[in-house]
Amino acid sequence: MKLYRMKNKLNLLLxxxxxxxMVACAQxxxxxxxxxxxxxxxxxxxxxxxxxxxxxxxxxxxxxxxKSSDGFFGDYHQNHDFRTFVSEVPNxxxxxxxxxxxxxxxxxxxxxxxxxxxxxxxxEESFEIKMPKEGRVGEExxxxxxGVSNASFNAVLKETDIFKVNGSTINTTVVDGVASTTxxxxxxxxxxxxxxxxxxxxxxxxxxxxxxxxxxxxx
Length: 219
Known about the structure:
Number of domains: 2
């Protein structure tokens, strides 16, 4: 476990426009709270931490529950709460403790709670190869490889003495940071024999991607 005591000295210069008009900050119980938007991330990835300054009474925003464009906390405010986000990249496997975060304002110091994030290794990902099991020399066939990955996919099919690569397309759809990818390659068969399509046929294939080999015959 690595304790990240990164007391971010957040620049609140623009926020002072809001602070100058506070009418009850001293009387109200103001607190700074931190919350990670994800409890688990893959090593090397970033996680967003939401910082919320609660209990501020500002007459600038009285009666407004809409988004603000003012200052450091301009991305969101509602009622007596102001919030923004910071990004962290914890690289130690296992439990990582982020924070506490500190804001100094109007002669007061607000210190947040710490947050815990579990960092895990990149899990193994399975991709599937779809292609004809048989073909003839000179015939053009399609080879598809598809799967779901947390990493970007830019694998290239190698030129070999078995086939010539005429072209390729890639289609990726990302949902919640997870990419569903299908790559299609057009190849012309050049050599007779029985061969195996496996990961050695590709360049730039991420290590975590597992491919089940496919056997095909060229006549």
